[in-house]
Each structure stands twice: as structure tokens, then as C-alpha cells.
Write a structure and sequence with these properties.
Blueprint (H helix, E strand, L loop, with lengths): L15 E3 L2 E3 L6 E5 L6 E6 L3 H20 L2 H17 L1 H12 L3 H22 L5 E3 L6 E9 L2 E5 L7 H13 L2 E5 L5 H14 L6 E3 L4 H10 L3 E7 L2 H11 L5 E5 L4 E5 L5 H13 L9 E7 L3 H13 L19 H16 L3 E4 L12 E4 L16 E7 L2 H9 L3 E2 L1 E5 L3 H10 L4 E4 L14 E2 L2 E2 L12 E9 L1
Parallel strand pairs: 7-8, 7-10, 8-9, 10-11, 12-13, 12-18, 13-16, 15-16, 18-19
Antiparallel strand pairs: 1-2, 3-4, 5-6, 6-22, 11-21, 14-15, 17-20
Bound molecules: succinic acid.
Succinic acid (SIN) binds next to loops.
């Protein structure tokens, strides 16, 4: 399968998109897009720079007044058309995603539907965001509180969910009346191009969506420094998030940062163990372990440790590693060689400090790493302080509730956390005690368009999705009316 097998060739532009035009880099430079499963080159796209990013911002700034002036109903109609087109092109988009990102085709199809859902959800949400009338302190006055579009929003999107993270940012921005400049990850520009082409087809006016392809450092610096950009939304590592936040400080932008995680997944003695294993599989191995909300540290209480490990091992050994295009494959390649090396480094560190490898534990060549189960892991290991972002499951033993809460919270991250228990009191108590923006109780997949996604501590700020997702792209205005 190559990009020539994509049915809708309009999705393949090999160009950026600025002011309604498909454009090349000023200096004609390109970057290659590689297939992480084969190492082969799939396509070349323009390597744009600072000047092109500046033009994209100017295009977004000029398009803003007329887009903002449209009725919410008009903007919602465009988003609904985009949603429909994303669904109609599901198979092509999924193939493009598997080609450039590597995840199994069945997961790519799921991501296209997940990504499309944000366009529909925010089209609906925008129409209900009418503001508030607040009781005033004096007679003959009224306090009117409205939410207004913040302006030009810049979005830096990641390679692990190349469609859903783009729509999760762009849909609320457009619904709110903002215009967008999008910089997708260099590894996965083809999905971003295709989704932008569908936005154009859906009737998004020229300049309302702009796409700038190329180096994150160069384009990111312009997006952060340019005073016309009012919002910066970024999904990626905490390390890069810190740099972007510092670069945005001089122009005091609104920031929405969805950064790294290091999710604890806690299984108590009173859990339904088969269900806990099932949910741990979903949480840990989705996208080959390359999600910010992946279980990174699995804590299992002594009473169910052996039962959990036996079942977990059986399920992990049944995973099929391979090219995501092939039937039955459940674990694709990691995004690149550095990611496979990091997996090996984390496993080696655990093993050197006493952990046992129950299955996997080895590189499989290219960007592939074997799904790995590690038992009796101690707390002084790399997965306790960094995201592993690979199909590696380190399992720790614990004795009691207070102890595990302390260990789970002992991290700078606070994106998601999971617990499995049949005791409702414990579920409530532990959910409250865990320091994370998202908690899954007996559930390993917590993302949906209806729910607010985002973290606390150094996992970031702001929320995407849910009713809260529009707040990142709006400013509150209070008007005191005297009469
Ligand atoms: C992420 O890993 O950044 C997003 C995952 C999700 O939306 O579930």
C-alpha cells in the first residue's frame, strides 16, 4: 500500500495552505515523510519557515473579522460539513495515517471517527454558548457576561494522533469564531494536509485555516513571538511546552498546553481482575503505548498480583506486532529509532534494578519493540520519572491504599490516573486523592469528545473537548448596562 492507493487524490497536496492557497516553501525546500513500518519514503512536503509562518498569521488575522462576524449557526454548518466529509473519507484518511504514523489500520479508522466527532461536538456546543446575565448590585443596571472569540489561534499538533489532536483544537477555535494557523508534527503532515483539504471543501473560507509545514523550532518560534497570535495550543512533551510557554511570555498569549503524562494504573485486591486486565491492555497498548494517557506505571496489590500477572501476560503474548496495514496486527512500529531505543533503555534500567522480564524485553528490528511485561519493578526506575511511550508494562507491587496513593502521586506529571476496585467508597476516595486531571475508574479508555481532556501539575493547563474546550479560544467580556 502506497499513497497512490488513496482513492481521493484531492487529499494529497504536498503543500502548505496559506490564505486559501496551496503553497510551497519560499526556498523550494522539502522534508521527507517516512513510513515508520518500512523506513521507506512516502512523500515530500514543503519545509516552510519563519516568513511563510508570518504570512499564514497575517492571512488568519485578515480573515478573522469576517469569520467572527458570521452567525454561530453559519459557522456550525461549516463544521458539520467538515464532520461529514471526514467520515466519508474515513478509509483514505485511515490509510494515510497508518502509512505515516504506523498505528494498526483498525486504530486509524477509530481515530478518524474520534477526530470527526470534535467537529460535530463543537458545532453543537457553539450554538448553546449564550453567556450569562448576572444579578447586578444596583437597581437599573445589568451585568452581561459574554464569551468572544480570542483571535488568531496557533496550534502545534503531535504525531501520535495526527487527526484527532488537530480537530480537537481547530474545531472549537473555528466554532468560537477564531481563525487558525496549524503546525503539524513533521512526521505526520499528510493527515494534516488531508484534513485541511476537507475543511476547504467543507466551505471554511480562505485564511480561516492555514497550515504551515516544517521545522517545529523555526515555525514554533514565530507562532510564539508574533503579537497577532492570541492563543497558542500545543500538544507534546513537557520539555517543549516549557520552551513554548517561555517564548509566549513577552506577548502574554492565552496558553493551552496538553503535555506529558506518567499515568499510574492501580489494581486493588477487590478489583474484578479480568476486567482490570482488559482495561490495562487498552490503556497500555493503544497506539503501541504512544499516548500521553497511557498507563506508564501499573501498581497491583499483593492479594491479586499473581492472578493479574498471569492473565496480563497471556493477553500481552497474544498481541501481534507488524506493519499496521496487515490484517490482525495489533501493535505497529514506534514512530522512529529514537523511540525504540528509549523503550530498550527503560527496560534495561528496570532489569538492572531487579525487575524480571515475563515476556518481550527485546527490540524487533527497525522501529519495532516487543510488547513487554516486567514484574517486581522497584520505584527507582526510569518509567517512574519519564513517559516510556512504548509497549512496555512495568508492574509494581503494593500493600495498602495510602501507600499506593503516595507512590502514584510522586511525579511532576498529573494528566491521567486509573484505578480498579469494586468498592464504591474506595473509588471515590482514591479518585479524589489522585493528582490528575483525568481519572478512569475500572475504565482504561477515557477520551471522548464529550469529556474535558487535560492535566494538572507539569502535564499542562487548559482543557480540550467537552463544554470546557471552547474556553481556550474565547475571552470573557463583562458589560455593565445602566438604564
Ligand atoms: C494524547 O495522547 O495526547 C491524546 C490521547 C487521547 O486523546 O486519547
Amino acid at each position: 500500500m502506497t499513497i497512490n492507493d488513496i482513492n481521493n487524490q484531492n487529499l494529497l497536496k504536498a503543500a502548505g495552505f496559506v490564505g486559501g492557497e496551496w503553497v510551497q516553501a519560499d526556498d523550494g525546500g522539502t522534508l521527507t515523510v517516512d513510513n515508520p513500518a518500512t523506513g521507506g519514503i512516502i512523500a515530500r512536503v514543503p519545509a516552510m519557515g519563519e516568513a511563510e509562518a508570518r504570512r499564514a498569521i497575517m492571512a488568519a488575522e485578515s480573515a478573522w473579522p469576517s469569520w467572527r462576524a458570521k452567525t454561530v449557526k453559519e459557522r456550525a454548518a461549516v463544521l458539520m460539513a467538515w464532520h461529514q466529509l471526514l467520515l466519508e473519507n474515513e478509509e483514505d484518511l485511515a490509510r494515510l495515517m497508518t502509512l505515516e504514523q504506523g498505528k494498526p489500520l483498525v486504530e486509524s479508522r477509530g481515530e478518524v471517527r474520534y477526530g470527526a466527532s470534535f467537529a460535530q461536538w463543537f458545532a453543537e456546543e457553539a450554538r448553546r454558548d449564550g453567556g450569562d446575565i448576572v444579578p447586578a448590585p444596583r437597581t437599573n443596571t445589568q451585568i452581561r457576561v459574554t464569551r468572544e472569540a480570542a483571535g488568531v489561534a496557533a496550534m502545534i499538533t503531535p504525531w501520535n494522533f495526527p487527526i484527532a489532536m488537530l480537530t480537537r483544537k481547530a474545531a472549537p477555535a473555528l466554532a468560537a469564531g477564531c481563525t487558525a494557523v496549524i503546525k503539524p508534527a513533521s512526521q505526520t503532515p499528510l493527515c494534516a494536509i488531508a484534513v485541511t483539504a476537507l475543511a476547504q471543501q467543507a466551505g471554511v473560507p480562505a485564511g480561516v485555516i492555514n497550515l504551515v509545514l516544517g521545522s517545529g523550532t523555526v515555525i514554533g518560534s514565530e507562532l510564539c513571538a508574533n503579537p497577532a497570535v492570541r492563543v497558542l495550543s500545543f500538544t507534546g512533551s513537557t520539555e517543549v511546552g516549557r520552551i513554548l510557554a517561555a517564548q509566549c511570555a513577552p506577548t502574554i498569549k492565552k496558553l493551552a498546553l496538553e503535555l506529558g503524562g506518567n499515568a499510574p494504573f492501580i489494581v486493588f485486591d477487590d478489583a474484578d481482575v479480568p476486567r482490570a486486565v482488559q482495561q490495562a491492555m487498552l490503556s497500555k497498548f493503544r497506539n503501541a503505548g504512544q499516548t500521553c494517557v497511557c498507563a506508564n506505571r501499573i501498581y497491583v496489590q499483593n492479594g491479586v498480583y499473581d492472578e493479574f500477572m498471569a492473565l496480563f501476560k497471556e493477553r500481552i503474548m497474544a498481541l501481534k506486532v507488524g506493519n499496521g496495514m496487515d490484517d490482525g496486527v495489533t501493535i505497529g512500529p514506534l514512530i522512529d529509532g529514537a523511540a525504540a531505543n528509549k523503550a530498550a533503555q527503560h527496560v534495561d534500567d528496570c532489569v538492572q534494578k531487579g525487575a524480571k522480564v515475563l515476556c518481550g524485553g527485546n527490540a524487533l528490528g527497525g522501529n519495532f519493540y516487543a510488547p513487554t511485561l516486567l514484574s517486581d519493578v522497584c520505584d527507582d526506575v526510569l518509567p517512574c520519572c519519564e513517559e516510556t511511550f512504548a509497549p512496555v508494562a512495568p508492574v509494581f507491587r503494593f500493600t495498602d491504599e495510602n501507600e499506593v496513593i503516595k507512590r502514584a502521586n510522586d511525579t511532576i506529571y498529573g494528566l491521567s490516573a486509573y484505578l480498579c476496585t469494586r468498592d464504591l467508597g474506595r473509588a471515590m476516595r482514591v479518585s479524589e486523592a489522585l493528582e490528575a486531571g483525568i481519572i478512569g475508574v475500572n475504565e482504561g479508555i477515557i477520551s471522548s469528545e464529550e469529556a474535558p481532556f487535560g492535566g494538572i501539575k507539569q502535564s499542562g493547563m487548559g482543557r480540550e473537548g467537552g463544554t470546557y474546550g471552547m474556553e481556550e479560544y474565547t475571552e470573557i467580556k463583562y458589560t455593565l448596562l445602566g438604564f
